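Notes from the pairing session

We agreed to fold both candidates in a single pass and log them together. This is the raw record for the first candidate, unedited. Please don't reformat it; downstream parsing expects exactly this layout.

Candidate A
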Amino acid sequence: MTSDQGVVFDLGYQPHEGDRLGRRGAIFATIRDGLRRILGIRRKARKKVMPWLLFGIALLPVVAVVGISFFVDDIFSGGVDNPFAGHPNIFTITAPMFFIFSALAGPELLIPDRVEGVMSVYASRPMRVSDYLGARAAALAIAAGGFLVVPQFILYVGLASLHPDGLFSGLVDNASDIPKFLLASLFYLLTYGAPAFLVGLFAKRLGPAWGIYLAFMWLSAIFAVVITEATSGIGRYAALIALSIHPDIIMDWIFGRTTVREGITGADFGPMWSVGIILGVAVITWIIGIRKYRSLL
């Protein structure tokens, strides 16, 4: 025989007494969570190893060389053969590290939320789909600054300190390099970040997502070089799928230098083709993300 009497349990519920930060607070909280996730902050030690190892490889050589430059006069000479000869050459060290970091970070920012079923938590906040995806992209962009921009600023100050008229004169004379390496960094971010996000939008596990991203970026470059060198005419358009080469072409164009890029340079496409392809991939990724996450938020 069942009883119709109910029982009330006092669980000590307390209403929220702090500031209600609203939509802006939710966005910044999502950015902070993304940075902690991809940098391994407040996570297990094994989650910290790869991001900080890659960051150290990107940063420490530049710091060391700038320090040595005070004792060795010609360390920044040598043209394209010297990776420390100027701002464009530094990207040969930092960009590959950010490429690997993007393979890890892009899926890490998106997959766990879906797989672990916490999207409803974000839906309970005053956030739009564009807010969530934009916050995740902002987290990757901030991390990209550490890989791509910070070493460039260190080199900028290092070169200025060697100026014959002093540090301040060197900073002023070389100031035109700042917008150049910032713009180049933006295209490296879009080139490596957008495909990583695209994989993260559909993959359900981190391991396969990392493999898919790395395989596509590497194999597409190899395929483009092979097809372009083996064929002529319409076959040269195969060079355009080599996403990893496009930011190098744009960087050369920004800094006004000419460098032979295997395969795609022989296809005789101008830098605006590379700009259009990178922006196109980024826009397509954003549109697909908005459409997919409308049913989740």
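Candidate B (folded immediately after A)
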Amino acid sequence: MSITNRLQIHFSRRSRRRSCATAQCGAWFVLCVALVLGGAVPQPARAGLFSISPEKERRMGEEAARQIESQARIVRGPVADWVNAIGQRLASVSSREFKYSFKVIDSPEINAFALPGGYVYVFTGLRKVAQTDDELAAVLAHEITHAEEHHFARQYKKASKRGALLTVASMAIGLPNIAQQVVGLVDFSMSQKYSRTHEFEADQKGIERMTRAGFNSQGMVSLLQNLSRENGRSSRLDKWFGSHPDGPKRVSTAQQASAQVKARKTQGDPLVKPAYAPWTHETLQAIAGSAADGDGNTGGADGNAGGASNSAP
């Protein structure tokens, strides 16, 4: 059973125990619409009627993350440490607007997603296609971009203006408003219902982010090639890649973007200037050793240099 289904059952049971009457359901409907639009607290004029502020994103993401982690099996140990180490390196060259977390869900699906506010999750099934540090960095850099560029808020605003809010609000009948928001947000994030423009932007800016963090941007290309080969062969590839732009075009666009970023780096473009020495598997081992020693050092520009991508732990 999927996480979203479990959440729906969880909240539905809570709702049935409350025996919501018709009038109360109507009240939940109105309240849910109000809270989804920003609650009783007025939003800044610049936000607009259908906008979600960064603080609202943080609150929604935090609640959704709490519910996900109460229902899903969160992995601990070397794989989780690997994901977090690479994720935090990428976060260190990203906007400070959100504090990022990176966790692993035990599931065979080939999927990863980011909740608003910087909560990033990868499924263990993704290791089938993300086999190197650079390929994992590509996944995480892509998901960080979704959070940093507020893609959920932008997509929500666009959908709301089209009247999709009516569908969202109707789901709230009989459910506590926060339940509707959490289930809807988890479903949106896990099914990657972003526009093609947002997906290509996540690849492009993800490549830039990888370069700043010392990863090889070719990892994005090889990841997409792996996904493209896997597509059609596996019934589990129905999330991260299946709902994204068509494979061949995405691979080609990533190849062009990677070549352009390398040229820009040579020209001294600050957007792709590395803040760290090239990442190697030895870098990961050094970070693990530093964490064990308690000094928290993540390895800066004087850290390990050289080397290509290495296999994951």
